[in-house]
């Protein structure tokens, strides 16, 4: 798989050929269906699977991948917003540890997804990838109700920011998803209140 980071700092586009994306889609559904960590069908992971499926069905972005000396290969992409995507990989990694059976193929898909997402994050925030990943896994282990009640308002607020502010504030926004509000978080909880009852994301530049 490969990625394109958006200049808006809103997120990235993940690309893969049809086999890579079908493998990812199958893996996501295995975690949803089999992980004891997920008490019910997680909406964030279900949405990720939905986007992956629409990508390999040709309903999102289309492109080609050209290897040296080979014919171009069709690839398909889908959009990922940073706060959501980071929680999604945290959920998948944490959920994998609570599955009755984990294959080498499961691990390969998981490591591949982690690698490409964190590499994309590093292009925007050099040196921050591992810290965000560890936080994402910790938040996932804290339980579904904790982050699911917050993620929409955090992502909505994130999308209203300028590209520079998105880059500067992603860490504080992400930190606010934890069970406890960090004393050194520069953001106030009240900043998210206007977004708590929204059913759709506000208009934003992708």
Write up this protein.
The structure is a single chain. The protein is α+β, with helices and mostly antiparallel strands and 206 residues long. It has one domain. The chain has eight helices and four strands, in the order E-E-H-H-E-E-H-H-H-H-H-H. It has helices spanning 18-34, 43-56, 82-96, 104-124, 129-142, 144-148, 151-160, 163-175, and strands at 2-5, 11-16, 61-65, 73-81. The protein has a four-stranded antiparallel beta sheet with strand order 1-2-4-3. Helix 1 packs antiparallel against helix 2 and helix 3 runs antiparallel to helix 4 (104-124). The longest helix is centred in the middle third of the chain and has 21 residues, at 104-124.
CA radius of gyration = 17 Å
Largest sheet: 4 strands, antiparallel
- Termini separation: 21 Å
What fraction, in percent, of the residue positions are helical? Answer: 40-55%
Average of per-residue pLDDT values: 93
Number of domains: 1
Query: Shape from CA axes?
Result: globular
Number of helices: 8
Q: Give the amount of beta strand, in percent.
A: 5-15%
Weakly predicted, low-confidence segments? none
Order of helices and strands: EEHHEEHHHHHH
Kindly name the structural category: alpha+beta
Please provide the count of β strands.
4
Read across the widest sheet, the strand sequence of neighbours is 1-2-4-3
